[in-house]
Amino acid sequence: MQKETVEITTEFITMDKLLKFSGVADTGGQAFLMVEDGVVRLNGQLVTEKRKKVHPGDVVNIDDQIELTVAKEA
User: Sorted alphabetically, which keywords does the UniProt record give (predicted)?
Assistant: First the structure.
């Protein structure tokens, strides 16, 4: 499994923006499709909301192949 840390400067980032910002999805539309296809989990729970808020400390898994840990940029 590929593991990455994504640093954000804001209080939260929406799931679609996180997937695009991290490079997992090339476009926001592709990020939406990933959520619709049921391959995105937030802290172990299936994500069905495309604009779900993701906060520092949260862990996002994509298709059990990529793990993104969200951190607050120092």
Answer: RNA-binding
